């Protein structure tokens, strides 16, 4: 029993079944004496519908998805080489493959398409999509590979454009930082709540164990008394 194995099972389920299955897996890990694993499992986030749809593509249409991700590697290589002709061809193929996968997804939408596009542009995103354990859809805010004609020299951005770009990048960084801080706090709160409830459950389990022991002792005394009462009643009839 390990986290990867459990995560694969959970993120392959229907969204509506995720929470109950996650709690069952965490409980099983705890009962097996794997406290750290239980906490890690309990911290796994329920996927959004879009993330779930992409996860299903990695399971139901693995070959088609692999074709798109492999094309992404070619696209990034062509971008690095600034091969305008290859970029134009690969970009067109990416569009066709991406649209086909969106139609195959159990739930389509802009976020599914954005996630697939991110996976063709960014290698880390591709790895996440390939694993099929997304909790949230992905997006890419950097420069996407696109055909760049070699015959036309790059135009140096104006001072105003440079400032606008710097402002945009600063805003994106601030938004990303704020989102990270928000989810980090949410995770800390969730883990704390879970640990507190685990302590309460452990306390109740100890009380229940003591109560069961006392009940067993009472049952034993009742059985002895019942046996002795029957014996005394038999002697009384003689």
Model description:
With 238 residues, the chain is mostly helical. 77% of the residues lie in helices and 0% in strands. The protein is built from 9 helices and no strands. Helix 2 (18-31) runs antiparallel to helix 3 and helix 4 packs across helix 5 (62-81). The longest helix is centred in the C-terminal third of the chain and has 78 residues, at 159-236. The radius of gyration is 30 Å and the shape is elongated.
Structural class: mainly alpha
Helix content: over 70%
Number of helices: 9
The description of the largest β-sheet is: none
List the helices and strands and how they pair.
Blueprint: H1 3-11, H2 18-31, H3 35-42, H4 49-60, H5 62-81, H6 84-104, H7 110-121, H8 123-131, H9 159-236
What are its keywords?
238 residues; single chain; elongated; mainly alpha; 9 helices
Give a short synopsis of this structure.
The protein is an all-alpha fold. The chain has helices at residues 3-11, 18-31, 35-42, 49-60, 62-81, 84-104, 110-121, 123-131, 159-236.
């Amino acid at each position: 029993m390990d986290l990867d194995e459990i995560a694969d099972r959970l993120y392959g389920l229907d969204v509506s079944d995720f929470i109950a299955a996650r709690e069952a897996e965490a409980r099983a890990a705890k009962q097996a004496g794997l406290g750290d694993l239980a906490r890690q499992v309990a911290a796994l986030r329920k996927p959004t519908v879009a993330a779930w749809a992409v996860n299903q593509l990695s399971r139901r249409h693995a070959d088609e998805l692999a074709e798109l991700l492999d094309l992404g590697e070619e696209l990034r290589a062509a971008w690095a080489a600034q091969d305008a002709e290859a970029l134009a061809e690969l970009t067109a193929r990416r569009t066709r493959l991406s649209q086909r996968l969106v139609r195959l997804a159990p739930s389509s939408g802009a976020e599914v398409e954005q996630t697939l596009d991110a996976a063709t542009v960014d290698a880390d995103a591709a790895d996440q999509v390939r694993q099929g354990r997304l909790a949230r859809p992905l997006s890419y805010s950097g420069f996407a590979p696109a055909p760049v004609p070699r015959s036309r020299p790059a135009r140096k951005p104006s001072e105003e454009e440079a400032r606008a770009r710097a402002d945009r990048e600063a805003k994106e960084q601030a938004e990303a930082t704020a989102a990270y801080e928000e989810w980090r706090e949410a995770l800390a709160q969730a883990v704390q709540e879970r640990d507190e409830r685990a302590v309460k459950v452990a306390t109740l389990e100890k009380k229940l164990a003591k109560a069961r022991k006392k009940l067993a002792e009472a049952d034993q005394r009742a059985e002895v008394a019942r046996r002795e009462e029957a014996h005394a009643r038999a002697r009384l009839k003689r």
